[in-house]
Amino acid sequence: NVHLAHYLYGRLLSRQTPGCLVFTSSSAGFIPTPFAAMYATSKAAISAFAASLACEGRARGVHVHAVHPSPVNSRFSKGGGNDITLRKVSAMDFFYKFATGPEALPDLFFRAVGRSAVVADLGGVSLGLRLLVQLLGYNFIAFASALTAHLSADYQNNIAKAEAKAKAS
Q1: How many CB atoms lie within 10 A of CB 41?
Q2: Which residues have C-beta within 8 Å of that of residue 13, sequence separation ≥ 6?
Q3: pLDDT tens-digit map of 33-84
Q4: CA distance 131 to 114
Q5: Rg (Cα) of the chain, in Å, rounded?
């Protein structure tokens, strides 16, 4: 994202050409996401990167957006068509009940272009999570998640795997 954005954004600015960059991010970047920490971290970085570029470029005709689509039933969640095993996060099962297909995304992305929203939450899951964070606050949600994480299936699976690995050693 950074290298491609630098290339395209730099060209738009140097040519004084209006344009738009749209980054796909995730609501995982603004909520605690146990057992998917690197995914959430990278999505938070993309959203902050886009927001910062939007501040720099808007007055020069370059719109930058980060979109947070709700869960998408794509090949990504199945390994992208590659013969690999993905570690599944059980907490996402609930959210995938509300997933859309990837064909719905282009129209949603284009609706965000040029609008006032720099970071656009698209779909019920992303909007609901954003509202929850606004109402309860990130610190409260992070603390509550830390207090209750040990009750989750993902935590129990992680502990079981660690114990099995220790016994095998």
Answers
A1: 13
A2: 57, 60, 62
A3: 888 889 899 999 999 999 999 999 999 999 999 988 887 777 665 655 666 5
A4: 23
A5: 19
If DSSP states are collapsed to H, E and C, what string results for 141-154?
A: HHHHHHHHHHHCHH
Q: Tell me the sheet residues that pair with 22.
A: 65
CA pair distance 78, 115, nearest whole angstrom: 33
Task: Quote the CA–CA distance of 125 and 147 in Å, as a whole number.
Answer: 23
d(CA 85, CA 113): 35
3-state percent breakdown (helix, strand, coil) of the chain, nearest 5: 60, 10, 25
Asked whether residue 101 carries a pLDDT value surpassing 90, the answer given is no
Q: pLDDT at residue 86 above 60?
A: no
Non-local (6+) Cβ contacts of 109 within 8 A are: 22, 24, 65, 67
**Strand, helix or coil for residue 45:** helix
Tokens standing for residue 98: 């509300």
Amino acid at 83: D
Whole-number Å distance between alpha carbons of 26 and 40: 8
